[in-house]
Every structure is written in C-alpha cells, then in structure tokens.
Amino acid sequence: MGKKKNQKQQPSASKDDLLNTLGDFTSKENWDSFFTIRGSDDSFEWYAEWPQLRDSLLPLIQQHPSPSSPSPSSSLQILVPGCGNSRLSEHLYDAGFGDITNIDFSKVVISGMLRRNVRDRPNMRWRVMDMTQMQFPDDTFNVVLDKGGLDALMEPELGPQLGTKYLSEVKRVLKSRGKFICLTLAESHVLGLLFPKFRFGWNVCLYAIPQKPSTKPDLQTFMVVAEKESSNELHQIISSFDHSSLACNPNQTSGLLEALESENQIRGEYLNGSDVLYSLEDLQLGAKGDLKKLSPGRRVQLTLGDQGVSHFCYKAVLLDAKQQSGAFSFHCGVFIVPKTRSHEWLFSSEEGQWQVVESSKAARLIMVLLEASHANAGMEDIQKDLSPLVKPLAPADNDKGNQIPFMTASDGIKQRSVVYQGSSSLTGPVVIEDVVYENTDDDVSHSLPFRRLVFERTEGLVQSEALLTRDGLFDKSVYGTEKKKASSSSKSKRRGALKRNNESSGKMKVYHGYLASSYHTAIISGFSLISSYLESVASSGNRVKAVVIGLGAGLLPMFLHGCMQSMQIEGVELDPVMLNLARDYFGFTEDKRMKVHIADGIQFVRDYRNLFSAGNEVLLSSNGSCKLSDAESRSTAIDIIIVDVDSSDSSSGLRCPAADFVEDSFLQNVKDTLSEQGLFVINLVSRSPAIKDAVVSRMKEVFSHLFCIQLEGEVNLVLFGLCSESHIEEDCIPDAALKLDKLLKSEHPEISQSITDAAKKLKRLK
C-alpha cells in the first residue's frame, strides 16, 4: 500500500497508468481493481526495495525480544499489515524468519500471494483482514512490519481517523518488548500522529534508509522503530543519522526535522514536569499515576476525543479533590464550561479550578473547556459525545458504576436580542443586547428587560447593565426588582451565546433612576464615609467634585447626576467609541454638571496632580488634558475619584481594574489629587485571595484608612480609601448612611433603601 503518485518516488510509465486506477488509497474496491490489472506474479514496491532495506532492517528484527529469553529468528512472530504484492515478507522468510502473517483487505491480492508462495514458502500465512480492525488477540506478535501502510491510511483529505485506529491495533497486538517497524516517507502529518501515539512506554528510534544512486534529490524512505517497554517511561526520540547528510527532497527534510524537533520538545516538557496536555492513552499508560485510584491534589490537563472516535475534540482538566472534612456528593463528575466563560480566571487558572472542585463536592472533577469548534452544537449533543470519553477517567469506586453526572455554567438568560454589534480599535468587538432573565422564583419582575454592554475580549463579563422602561420613565412595576432580580452584577456576571434579533425594544428606553448593578449600589453607599463633608458642601452652595474613570455605558454618572444636584461629575474614558455608544444606546447626556474627557485615566490623574499640587487652579479640556486655568472653568481639588474599568488581560487573575490602577505610583497620585476629606473608590474583581490581599496591602500603605464592602455571592470587592486622618467609627455608619440618604434625591425608594442597607456592610480594614 502507499500514497498518491505525486508523493512517491516516480515509478515507470506503466506504473503511472496503474496508479491512475487507485485514486482513493483507502478504498478496497480500488485496490482490488489495481491488483487485478497488475496480476499476482508482478510485485510492486512503492519505495525502498530489498537491497536498500536489508542491512538496516535485518539487525533490528534479529535482536532478541528479551535478553533473558533468547529466541531463534524462526520463532519470532511477525505481522506484515497491508502487505499488497510486495516481496518484503518473501525476502524475510528466505532470510530465516518463518513465522510471518500477512494481511490485506484486498481478497484479490491475498489470493494471488497465496498462490505465488504456497509451494516455496508453505508456512507463510495470508489472511484477508482490515488492518484497522485486526482479528488477533492482544500481545500476539513480536514484530509488526509496516511498509507504506500507515502512509496510505493518512490521506490528508481524510484526516487521521483511519491512522489512529490502525496504530491503536498495532499497540494492542504487540507483545512486551515487541517492535513496530514503520517504513514511511515521514511526512509531517504522518509523524504528527505517529510520534504522539508512541510516547509513554515506548522507545522510539528514527533511521534513514539508503537511497539508490540518483542524479537528483528524491523522496527518501525512513524507518521509525518503536519498541514496547514493560514500564511507562518516556524517552526522547533518537535519530541514527546525520541530519545534514540527508540528500533527499528539501521539503521532505525540513518537514521531518521540524516534526522531530517539535515532538522532542514536547517530550522534554513532560520530562521536566511542565504543565502540558496529555492524551487519554498517555494517562491510561500511567503517565500521571493510576487513574483508577484517587490521588488528592492531582491535576492533569488532557485532550479528549479524536476523529473517528468522537464528533469533537475537547480540552479538559482532571482534578482529584484535595483532602476535605466533609463527605463528597459523588466520586466523579463532569463540569462543562461554555466558550463564553472558558477564559475566565475561575476556569482558566489552577487556583480558580480548585475553587470549582471544592464547590462541586466531587472527589474527581473533569472540567471540559468548550472552544469555537463547539459553537454550533447543543449541550445535549456535547454531553452525548463526551459520555464515552470520560468513562475511562472515572475512579474504580465511581458510585458502583452509576452514570457520571454532568454540570455546566449557565447564564440564566430567558430571552436575548442583539441591538448593536460593532468593534473598536481600543476595546475590540462590542455587543449591546437586551435580555430577560429566567424566572426562578415566579416573580413578575423577572419579565422586565435589561440592556447590557458586553466586551468580547472579556466574554462572560457584563460591563454595564440598565433597566429598560417605557420611554425611560419611572414605572411602579420596578418595585421589588432590586431584591428579586437574578444576580446581574456588572463586571462579574456571565453571558451566554448570542442570538441576533433585529427587532428593537420599541419605545423601551434606559431608566437612569435605577441601579441594576449591585456594585454600583455599593460604590454609592461608601459615600456615607464622608456624608458629613458632602452635607457641608451642599449646604454652603458649593459642589462636590467627582471624577469617574471608566465611563462604560455612563450609568453610574447618570444616576449620580440625577440624584445629587450638588455634584459636579467629570467622566474619563479612553475609548471615544464607548462615549458614542453610551449616548446612542444608553441615553447618556452631558451638561454643565456632567462632562466627559477622552483620555487615559492614569495620565489624567498624573497631569492633574502635577499642576494642582503646585498650587495652580486647573482647567480641564474635553480631550482630558490639564492646563493652568483662567478666570473661568476653574477646578479645585477633587473630592471623589472612582475607578471603574476592566482589565484586557484576563490571564492575570485581576479582572477589574487593569493592574496599572493599583500600582503604588497611581495610588499616591490619587491621594495627592484628592481634597483633605477626599474619598477614593475602586471596584476590584478577582477570584484570587492572594491578588485581593496584595491590592489591599498597597492601598493601606497610601491611604489613612481603608474600608470595604464584599458583595454577597459575587466576586466584587469595593474598596474605599480615605485621605483624612480622622475616620468614622463602624457603629456610626448607619447614622451616616441616613445622612447620605437625605442628600440623594432618588425617586425610587427601594434604591435609596438598598444604598442604606449596603452602607451597613462597610467594614474597616485594619
């Protein structure tokens, strides 16, 4: 067997005509036709004829399979799959190897070869058999000798399905210390399957077969020898030739050397203990211990599925729970992470994955991370495809053979319609969608629509969320929504797959008197810490100056603008596209008390600090630059700075804000910019306790006093830094919250109450 004409050494003209009858090298009918035309007496050698093979091949076969039990050559059991009408097995028989079995799925060629050898080689066996579905018991042969069989199965158009099945059969029928000898053109897609299949428990060597003298470089035959070991050790692949001495086709040489280097690099990473992907076969061979036994704290990344085995391939992580005091709910479970959430720290980091294991109450959790290739498949189809793949990963005591339960991360969305889908050079793809949440408690408020702003770079993280009402006006049906609505905290809530709907929400508009995001409520409740100062400013007829870094959809500034008439708000947004979207889809407007500056937030604070600390009054321009003011538009110290920005680097574990906003230099600039009674607020989103502790530690070094609100059931931690040496005692916070409530002119009483209630959760970090 072999490959297509343009991938082989060029046969004679008569052979060219015969090759045209084949076409598909995996078709039994094509091969029957080929051998019928050619006849049984005319052998066909695809490449590397006996004179070139003999000196390299015979020493490898003649080596005894085990030093402790030497066997004569005649007793070695040799299998030649895809034998065709090659004379290779005849030469071996004549060299003293009498126990040879030849198989081919072409009845025509097997019948012809049997007739050709029945007298001279009576002990040679010939069987009609599919090499991808062998009918031999396990551990039958000492040698499996393949000459072009794997190459023929690996047609690029068909993928690795047949090659995978064939190599699995080879591994099954070989005895311990047996050898798989594969004569191949060593094309990259063939080696890309062959090398990984023989990693753990195999010693692999690569040989170059000498070529016939030729006037020009030709395709060279290589020999891959994989010896089956009794242990599961991993070795580097050894090549027995000088790479620079190869005189074959340059493309063939480069493809071979790249595949060899890549595989040895992977093996080196395994040997060095790097966190790399294992195959299921690797694990079943014991690459990471006995899978049938639980090993507390074991974490293994692996791939599941293959062409011909499953509809899809999957990236997964196997985690054996660490020791815990409580009982496990089940021995083994599967947790499916949708593509929209697979990048999140909770699922992409080791620390986050252990948190999922702990909450799942599973002794072993197999976390499957879906990718773009799974986008068009339903969850039922995914589970059906995964079921047979995860069964071999279950521990031996898996609930007495009970079915492995599947879990998944849902977004709780009942309806979704996309009202805008576009892109920004700074932010990337952006989606604005109207959603209705699933009704989980029979509450009518779940039928209310919400508008959400989502960045694709942080899929699963809602940047902004607003309630929609008729014409954006107050509606009594809003009552109760704050407590009843499913948790939808911006910059912490996931979202599901998009479903485009070109129908708009009619006259439904954003209602700015309602806070849909609980962390916005927490931010405003922190104003209680300086409520006495805010009250004194308002009573004197002056205005509190607040800067909000990170506009998003403009919902927090718009709420403050409507509720606190004594507040002058300056928004700072890096991306001008965000400002346009806030205006067009979220009803954001500017006036004398509301200005937006298109600028970098860190640079904005630095420039303001440099000018203001020198005793100058500062003029803020619309492009965010700061300069000395004239008599008009004078700016004094800032009273409140709020940082509400996301991080584009989700791998850091810090989702909000970007890491630069918690650096010592920025924090110090913030403090220098604030008034003596100033307040710094930052929305911190991270599932890593270590990251949160580091941020808190930095802020303690800069600010006189530090308070926080940990949102219940969410990852948001809102931090409040005070500049004043004096601070409010925790037992006085309820009274301070009531004072703040009087300053807020909210037409929504439950919002006012939720702010007051949130203030009671303020804790001082000592």
Bin the helical content: 25-40%
State the major sheet: 8 strands, mixed
Distance between the termini: 77 Å
Shape category = elongated
Please report the total strand number as a whole number: 29
Instruction: Give me the secondary-structure category.
Output: alpha/beta
SS summary, helix count:
23
Plain-language structure description:
With 766 residues, the chain is α/β, with parallel strands linked by helices. The chain has four domains: 5-271, 3-Layer(aba) Sandwich (Rossmann fold), CATH 3.40.50; 278-408, Rossmann fold (3-Layer(aba) Sandwich); 413-510, no CATH class; 518-764, Vaccinia Virus protein VP39 (Rossmann fold, 3-Layer(aba) Sandwich), CATH 3.40.50.150. α15 (518-525) packs across α23 (749-759) and α19 crosses α20. The longest helix is centred in the middle third of the chain and has 22 residues, at 250-271. The chain is elongated, with a radius of gyration of 35 Å.
Features:
eight-stranded mixed sheet, alpha/beta, 23% strand, 766 residues, Rossmann fold, single chain, 23 helices, 4 domains
Q: In terms of topology, how is this protein built?
A:
Blueprint lengths: L12 H7 L8 H11 L11 H13 L15 E4 L6 H7 L5 E5 L2 H11 L7 E4 L12 E7 L1 H5 L7 H13 E11 L3 H10 L4 E7 L13 E7 L9 E2 L10 H22 L6 E2 H5 L14 E6 L9 E7 L9 E8 L7 H4 L1 H11 L1 E8 L9 H12 L15 E3 L4 E12 L3 E10 L12 E6 L6 E9 L10 H4 L23 E3 L7 H8 L5 H9 L4 E6 L5 H9 L3 E7 L2 H11 L7 E5 L2 H12 L5 E3 L5 E3 L9 E6 L20 H10 E12 L3 H14 L2 E6 L5 E7 L10 H11 L5 H11 L3 E2 L2
Parallel strand pairs: 1-2, 1-4, 2-3, 4-5, 6-8, 9-10, 12-13, 12-14, 20-21, 20-25, 21-22, 25-26
Antiparallel strand pairs: 5-7, 6-7, 10-11, 11-13, 15-16, 16-17, 17-18, 18-19, 23-24, 26-28, 27-28, 27-29
Helix pairs in contact: 7-8, 8-9, 15-23, 16-22, 19-20, 22-23
Keywords: Methyltransferase, Multifunctional enzyme, Transferase
Family: Belongs to the methyltransferase superfamily.
InterPro entries: Lys/N-term_MeTrsfase_sf, Methyltransf_11, SAM-dependent_MTases_sf
